[in-house]
Amino acid sequence: MLKKLGVDDSRLSQRMADALAIVESLVYGEVVQTSTYESNHRVNSRHYRNKAVDIRRQMMIRGKPIDVERIKEALGPEFKVLDEGNHIHIADLKE
């Protein structure tokens, strides 16, 4: 998995690491992490608890633009998946 310069995924929870592996298996080409705990996020963001990542939106899924609904379906209700326009936000909702 590729990472934007400065992104550190070494602190991610195991559930987030597993979720990223699932997303990567759905995608044709490379998944690019654009943010974990670094950068500026909302005060109570799960990014700061190592339970959220942002990935680059310019991905392809079997030759088509990535389908956020397909990611939601694959990860299930314990994860929030949001299309933020220039990236996809994935957060583990389990405490």
Which range does the strand content fall in?
A: 25-35%
Which structural class best describes the helix and strand composition?
Answer: alpha+beta
Q: Which outline best applies?
A: globular
Major beta sheet summary:
5 strands, mixed
Give helix and strand order, one letter per element, not per position: EHEEEEHEE
Instruction: Describe the oligomeric state of these chains in a short phrase.
Output: single chain
Number of domains: 1
Query: Segments where pLDDT lies below 50 for 5+ residues?
Result: none
Major β-sheet strand ordering: 1-2-3-7-6
Backbone CA Rg: 12 Å
Distance between the termini: 26 Å
Question: How would you describe what is shown here?
Answer:
The chain is of the alpha+beta class and 95 residues long. Helix content is 22%, strand content 27%. It has one domain (2-92). Strands 1-2-3-7-6 form a five-stranded mixed β-sheet, covered by helices on one side. Strands 4-5 form a two-stranded antiparallel ribbon.
Please name the defining characteristics of this protein:
single chain, 95 residues, alpha+beta, five-stranded mixed beta sheet, two-stranded antiparallel ribbon, 2 helices, 27% strand
Give a quick summary of the entry.
The chain has 2 helices and 7 strands. It is an alpha+beta fold and 95 residues long.
List the topology elements.
Blueprint (H helix, E strand, L loop, with lengths): L1 E2 L10 H13 L5 E4 L16 E5 L3 E2 L2 E2 L2 H8 L3 E5 L3 E6 L3
Parallel strand pairs: 1-2
Antiparallel strand pairs: 2-3, 3-7, 4-5, 6-7
Helix pairs in contact: 1-2
